[in-house]
Amino acid sequence: MSNNLLKGKKGIIFGALNEQSIAWKVAELCVAEGAQIVLTNAPVAAKIGQTEALSQKLNAPLIYADVTKMEDLENLVNGATEALGGNLDFVLHSVGMSLNIRKKNPYADSNYDYMHQTFDISAMSFHRLMQTLMKKDAMNEWGSIVGLSYIAAQRTFPDYGEMADAKSLLESFARSFGYHYGKKKHVRVNTISQSPTKTTAGSGVGGFDAFYNYADKMSPLGNANAEACAQYCVSMFSDYTRMVTMQNLFHDGGFSFTGISSELMDSFRDPAAE
Ligand SMILES: NC(=O)c1ccc[n+]([C@@H]2O[C@H](COP(=O)([O-])OP(=O)(O)OC[C@H]3O[C@@H](n4cnc5c(N)ncnc54)[C@H](O)[C@@H]3O)[C@@H](O)[C@H]2O)c1
Questions:
Q1: For residue 159, what are the contacts with CB-CB under 8 A and spacing of at least 6?
Q2: Where are the alpha helices (DSSP H) in 85-162?
Q3: What is the pLDDT of residues 58-87, one digit of tens each?
Q4: Which parts of the chain have pLDDT scores under 50?
Q5: Are 17 and 45 in contact (CB under 8 A)?
Q6: Which of 25, 29, 94 gets mutated to test ligand 1 (max ligand atoms within 8 A of its CB)?
Q7: Beta strand 188-194 pairing with 88-93
Q8: 52 part of a folded domain
Q9: Ligand 1 centre and the CA of 266: distance in Å?
Q10: Ligand 1 centroid to 22 CA: how many Å?
Q11: Residue 3 resides in a domain
Q12: Is there an atom of ligand 1 within 6 Å of 41 CB?
């Protein structure tokens, strides 16, 4: 079912690696809602992912870009505005990778070259992208830019490692750049803090199944899945959220504001004491 929420709008979607990717669902829904999109992913995704297949399915041009390279982003923005025949109304940054997590380095024994790369890929890329868009004046007035975050930016989850720090930085960039882009061109910038979701990036975090199940039991609505996240992203790209900017928006079924759920209370009860 389509409500044509994005009719006539143009955008770039980063990070659709395979069918599980949050960005994959967002790309599909944006097109179903009437948008024209360009897909992008890291060049290595050509070997390990299925972005090409999505590009064909949605009839959306695919331009590879490594988010750590300024020239790749410049080439992407030029190519996308040319392919779409005009400036952009929305951009989804759905990119994350931790080198220390991948190498299984404990948080308190992090390698700083890896940490630097993690911040570069997962957070500084958001700033680099927005700076490129602004310098090229590639966004339309009242455009919308969204990055995907996780609650480890505010609360500690032992196995989320340096990605927690990367997400804090990502959310801070949304506030800081959001101010400047709002002033300059009424472009809004937000992060969506999503529930644990079974994807390649998500499942790379140690103990993922345990904290997926924990979050599901803690959240009054249960975990939000990738399809629901796509719906939230589309609403953030639509004209119905024009005055929302510089926010970190929790999309987590209520997890972030729940102290404890009755299910979890039950698991701690001591029958002998009752
Ligand atoms: N899965 C979860 O539990 C969860 C929860 C909250 C937030 N998020 C965030 O959602 C976003 C998308 O992740 P996902 O869960 O869909 O996993 P995913 O693995 O499908 O997506 C991550 C994407 O980042 C891309 N990427 C990595 N390095 C890159 C580079 N140098 N240049 C360009 N692209 C690069 C990958 O190719 C991939 O497409 C990430 O920011 C992630 O941190 C995920």
A1: 101, 205, 206, 207, 208, 211
A2: 99-102, 112-119, 125-135
A3: 999 999 999 999 999 999 999 999 999 999
A4: none
A5: yes
A6: 94
A7: unpaired
A8: yes
A9: 35
A10: 8
A11: no
A12: yes
User: Domains in the chain: how many in total?
Assistant: 1
* Ligand 1 atom nearest 198 alpha carbon: 1
How many Cα neighbours within 13 Å face the side chain of 127? Answer: 15
Instruction: Give me 216's structure tokens.
Output: 């599901």
Dist CA 134 CA 141 (whole Å): 11
With vertex at residue 85, the alpha carbon angle to CA 14 and CA 239, rounded to the nearest 5 degrees, is 65
178 within domain boundaries: yes
Ligand 1 neighbourhood includes 147 CB (under 6 angstroms): no
Give the pLDDT of residue 260.
96
Look up residue 62 and give its amino acid.
L
pLDDT tens digits, 101-110: 999 999 999 9
Distance 265 CA to ligand 1 centre (A): 33
Q: What is the mean pLDDT of the chain?
A: 96
How high is the pLDDT of residue 200?
Answer: 84
Domain that holds residue 226: 10-273
Q: What are phi and psi of 55, to 5 degrees?
A: -60, -45
The whole-number pLDDT of residue 208 equals: 87
The pLDDT of residue 112: 98
Which two tokens mark 248?
Answer: 């970190």
- What CATH code is carried by the domain that includes residue 246? 3.40.50.720
How many CB atoms within 10 Å of residue 86?
Answer: 12
Q: Is residue 195 part of a domain?
A: yes
Reported as type and span, the H/E element at residue 191 is strand 188-194
Determine the Cα–Cα distance for residues 257 and 155; give it in Å rounded to an integer.
Answer: 12
